[in-house]
Design brief:
120 residues; homodimer; 81% helix; mainly alpha
Chain lengths: 120, 120
């Protein structure tokens, strides 16, 4: 099986819903980039055992995203917030170039601040 | 037990992770505002059975929020987006009152549009 990096995001969101053992194994695989054999050696289980544990964890992660769709929702949020930041910067630039309004600057600054905080 | 409306939000987020029966009972209770007795009558189970099913579902919803914290995260997003909308409207007003810049208007309009779409 090839590593699908999509699982890293799913793991960030839903990882705490897995059992401790599942989470440990799948984190080694996706976040620490260990091989099946390395994880098997470290845990004293067979390579097939590791493969099965990862497969089960992956299925659960996919099932949660299918039911809850929160990774998709959050990605849309982040995309929108980046767009908002961009427009706020354009407003500041335009304002600076043509007419300096303190009020417009303050509002654009506040929009950028809020959006950046949410993007963190 | 008193109805805690917090569960309505948790149900919106995590409801699909419950079993079909749990989801049905707790939705009648929180979203349709039926009483325990009404639900018991409709399902042909005891009032105590309904109470237990709701209690278990509530525990699962709370456990998911404790582990994933997504309702809290989304609320912060929504609060920030409302703030962004407000500031974008102020920019449009200010721009209209003092100096009409088409560019500033377009950017503020786009910010408001993106934020409103995300708020939907």
């Amino acid at each position: 099986m090839g590593k699908n990096l999509e699982f890293s995001s799913l793991l960030d969101f839903y990882g705490d819903m897995l059992t401790e053992k599942q989470r440990e194994v799948i984190k080694y695989y996706y976040n620490e980039d260990l091989s099946l054999s390395e994880i098997a050696y470290n845990h004293g289980i067979s390579r097939q055992g590791v493969r099965d544990a990862i497969k089960r964890a992956e299925e659960q992660l996919l099932d949660m995203e299918k039911k809850l769709g929160l990774v998709k929702k959050f990605r849309e949020m982040l995309k929108g917030l980046e767009e908002i930041c961009l427009e706020a910067r354009k407003i500041k630039e335009c304002n600076k170039k043509f007419i300096f309004s303190k009020d417009i600057y303050n509002c654009a600054q506040e929009i950028e601040k809020v959006a950046l905080e949410l993007l963190e």
